[in-house]
Automatic annotation (TrEMBL):
Superkingdom: Archaea
Keyword DNA damage in record: no
Keywords: ATP-binding, Nucleotide-binding, Transport
Protein name: ABC transporter ATP-binding protein
Molecular function via GO: ATP binding; transmembrane transporter activity
Keyword ATP-binding: yes
Any single GO CC term annotated in Swiss-Prot or TrEMBL for this entry: membrane protein complex
Organism expressing this protein natively: Methanoculleus palmolei
Amino acid sequence: METIIETRHLNKAYNDQVTALADVNLAIGKGEFVALLGRSGSGKSTLLNILGGLDAPTSGEVRIDDKSVDFGDRKALIALRRESIGFVFQSFNLIPALTAQENVEYPLLFNYRDTAVRRERAADLLSLVGLADRAHHYPREMSGGEQQRVAIARALIGEPLIVLADEPTGNLDSKTRDEIFGLMRQVNQERETTFLIVTHERELGKRTDRVINLLDGSVVA
């Protein structure tokens, strides 16, 4: 299997006192659906932020699609996030003043895509996540599960190789959680998009291809 995400001796420390990550080595294959498990403070979100270019490691290397990430190159990091990586967050992070359609379209504004292209792609993705009839509703008019579906559509708008999801079901009831998890799995299988999902729920981990466990900033068996 072709490797799409790789870290080599990755470390992250704050103020030389707090170690968030310690010698993390991992490899994730193209099209895998992987859970990153660990208790609060284990380093899960820190690792996800580094993989997404939102934070920089203290030392070590990250490779995305067999290319080393240069954390000192701001333009390259922006390009990485625009072209290769989609993000899904626990708190949805939708823009309140924009409709579902506009929220999904929003990332393409920075890619200078034609308006008609943006609208068509956003409409297709809202249909994919089962929200074609909610395209012109605002976040305040949608349930938590619907907002997270919009967030998933937005993450996919740039046709990323990878989706990084940080506790995407943490604010949802169990029924909606299962629906959202199932939707991400569907996208993974139909589009061969690689998913790395941070969660503390071991039950969800059983529904992935495999689980990576973090404990005190280190990968454990």
